[in-house]
Amino acid sequence: MRVADVRMSSGREFRPCEECPPIPEGLEHRLRDRLHLAELHRNATHWRGRLVLALALLGPGVLVMLGDNDAGGVITYMQTGAAYGLGLFLPLMLLLGFVAYVVQEMTVRLGAVTRRGHAELIWKRYGPFWGWFSLIDLIVANVLTLMTEFIGIRLGGQALGLSPWLTVPAALVFVTVVLVFLRYWTWERISLFVAAFNLIFVPLAVLAHPHWHAVAMAFAGQGWAVPGGLLSVTFLVLISANIGTTIAPWQLFFQQSCVVDKGLLPQDIRAGRRDLLLGVVGMVLVATALIVLAAQTLKGAPNVQQLDAEVVLAAVRAKLGTGMMALFALGLMEAGLIATIVITASSAWAVGEAFGIDRSLNAAPREALGFYLPAVAGTTVAAVLVMIPGLNLGFLNLSVQVIATVFMPAAMLFLLMLLNDRELMGEHVNSPRRNAVSIAIMVGLIACNGLYGLATIFPRVFGG
């Protein structure tokens, strides 16, 4: 069947043959997308065809990594630059980019090979107990993270003279509309358009006129001194927060489900890896730019763990002027918006997969209320909570990032077990080298969590 034949069909009365019953609207949209990709594969015999195919396959990897540079992540990177300047954390971003690629690449293979989302595989492979465990972890972490996104949107808007009673509800309505009323392909293109503005922080860092020699020396191994030592409370909190803003449980659920909903197959794994690599490069570039920007505007600020968006925006205005502050505020709002879009989608997919209901963005609202409603409800709760006056925003932001680090080892354990299930993965099962690297990442996360816990219980011992 040709794509043209599918496109000639009308709405939900599409039939693959005269005798066949009508295909549900959601499945029809997925079939159209899959046939469209198949046609692009057939036409990829010259450079134009290959370019069109590459652009069509772009999406999940870029969205998951630029969505990871969320409003909370922006403030975490600024707190890091304020505390340690142009030092150890700059090259550390390269290492964290590698870690993110290793972890997220497994979700690309898992989704393309099994054509099942992460939550669905956990429930079917390991039963309801572990299914509930992973789902509750995800939903709690998502609501907390969404609070930091709406805080970024609220404070960024206030810096531009906009009332939070305008910006927060407007963002909530926008996210709801694109999730519920747009089909997957349109949702993805709009999300990519929003995500592209994440790169606004790169020219901001350049216009701050940093000491480029010091930046280069940081990557060369100079200036890595850590005031207070590697076991100080400040360092342990910031290292945990930076890890948490680089890899988080929602990313596993989001990218795998995104790969499935997009219709990628095993032959698309290489393209999925390229898509992910592009996203990782963007994530590292933005994170590095923010640390450099903070080193120019916030270095030496007292009590960096309590720095929030308001303090950061004021510092950018004082050092770089109102125009630069306005650009930073727009970037902060964009970071919160793109993260809200993708995190809300991850909640919808996870709930749909867990309970076996329609779990595609191609599903019409009237046919999949149980798919859309829980995700929208969770996002609404987060939006309402951030309107409460008197929240300790800096502490909340760091806490959310650290919580993501605490939840991550369990999430990675499920991911590794699934990737080593030969019945599921066949020839795409994890290699011994991939397992070794993944286990090393898990051990590093557990060690980081353990040290952070000890520093919290015995702060005097760790210089707190």
Structure description:
The chain has helices spanning 3-7, 25-43, 47-57, 60-68, 71-84, 89-114, 118-159, 164-181, 184-196, 201-207, 212-220, 233-244, 249-262, 269-297, 309-320, 322-354, 369-385, 393-419, 422-425, 432-457. The longest helix has 42 residues, at 118-159. It is mostly helical. The protein is 75% helix and 0% strand. The termini are far apart. It contains 20 helices and no strands. Helix 4 runs antiparallel to helix 13 (249-262), helix 4 (60-68) packs parallel to helix 14 and helix 5 packs across helix 18. The chain has one domain (58-457): Up-down Bundle (Amino acid/polyamine transporter I), CATH 1.20.1740. Residues 1-13 have low confidence and may be disordered.
Could you say what the CATH architecture is?
A: Up-down Bundle
- What is the arithmetic mean of pLDDT? 84
What is the chains' assembly state? Answer: single chain
CATH fold naming: Amino acid/polyamine transporter I
Relevant terms:
disordered N terminus; 464 residues; globular; Amino acid/polyamine transporter I; single chain; mainly alpha
Task: Give the topology, please.
Blueprint: H1 3-7, H2 25-43, H3 47-57, H4 60-68, H5 71-84, H6 89-114, H7 118-159, H8 164-181, H9 184-196, H10 201-207, H11 212-220, H12 233-244, H13 249-262, H14 269-297, H15 309-320, H16 322-354, H17 369-385, H18 393-419, H19 422-425, H20 432-457
Helix pairs in contact: 2-3, 4-9, 4-13, 4-14, 4-16, 5-12, 5-14, 5-18, 6-13, 6-14, 6-18, 7-8, 7-13, 7-16, 7-17, 7-18, 8-16, 8-17, 10-14, 12-18, 12-20, 13-16, 15-16, 16-17, 18-20
